[in-house]
Design a protein that fits this description.
0% strand; 86% helix; 295 residues
């Protein structure tokens, strides 16, 4: 709001100083400023929804992983007891553990794909290609898991299966919401960039016209003030655009860490530093929680 107010003041100052055949360009700048404000308002609204959905997504995956970890731990405990007694774990339970581990790994990789390719690298094509690949693996792994859990005839496994199915459906729905909001803001971001470029061109035209007129009249002090006002509009619009990109754009530390984890060599004891209490700090906090669940 403060940024928009400063832009509006600059535009008004520019309008008050208009002359030398510049009224058309000034009107276009005023129109662009209003459109800029409208779009930025949509960006803020989408960003709030995006933050909520992202939080729900991380929480839902954490719940799924907790259920899966319980199953793996239970089976491992059964195996340990049977080994002590000189017996072996049944083939069904061995298969159940394997499918559970595989399913969990694919689910975590899907979340990494969202964080890495979509939220950090901003690469929609790569995200969708990887998502399609992982969705097929996850669907197959889950179907195999359901069959094995059913065949094990274990009430605890069946109970866990039903709970995981519910959370899995929720995860898929929220993931689509996150992507929809991200895509909407990316489109709006491109529109903001176009507006900023248009204002820059218009202020350049105004400055050129003003300079010619003021050279003839010798009013250099007015020229300086006028040009400063025009340039300030460009700077403010650019600052607003860059601020938005800084919130949802790449974060170098997170990129390096996620890439390390995705390649299978990541140190899961590392955490992202939380240096602020804004959206970036919140993302770092939730990402750290996500890594906690991977350990």
């Amino acid at each position: 709001k403060e940024l928009r107010g400063r832009i509006a003041q600059s535009v008004q100052s520019l309008e008050d100083s208009a002359g030398w055949g510049m009224s058309g360009a000034v009107k276009q700048i005023m129109k662009a400023e209003k459109e800029y404000g409208r779009i930025f308002g949509e960006v803020v609204k989408n960003s709030e929804g995006f933050a909520r959905s992202k939080e729900e997504l991380v929480t839902t995956l954490a719940t799924i992983n907790e259920l899966l970890n319980t199953i793996i731990t239970t089976i491992d405990g059964e195996e340990a007891m049977m080994n002590i007694e000189g017996d072996m774990l049944s083939a069904v339970k061995v298969a159940a553990r394997k499918e559970t581990v595989d399913f969990k790994a694919y689910g975590n990789e899907r979340m990494l794909n969202l964080f890495q390719n979509l939220l950090l690298y901003m690469n929609e094509k790569q995200y969708l290609e990887k998502k399609e690949e992982l969705d097929k693996k996850i669907d197959l792994a889950w179907q195999n898991t359901i069959q094995i859990y059913t065949g094990a005839n274990d009430p605890e496994l069946m109970k866990a299966k039903d709970a995981i199915s519910t959370h899995l459906q929720a995860f898929n729905k929220i993931q689509e919401e996150v992507f929809t909001l991200w895509k909407a803001n990316k489109k709006l971001s491109d529109e903001l960039a176009v507006i900023a470029a248009t204002v820059e061109t218009l202020t350049g035209e105004i400055s050129g016209t003003a300079e010619k007129s003021m050279r003839a009249s010798g009013t250099w002090s007015s020229l300086v003030g006028f040009v400063v006002t025009a340039i300030s509009i460009v700077i403010l619009c650019f600052f607003g655009f860059v601020t938005y990109k800084a919130v949802v754009g790449p974060i170098s530390d997170a990129v390096a860490m996620i890439k390390d984890i995705a390649e299978g060599e990541g140190d899961l004891t590392k955490r992202l530093p939380i240096k602020s209490h804004d959206e970036i700090g919140e993302m770092a906090s939730w990402f750290n929680m996500f890594v906690d669940k991977l350990q």
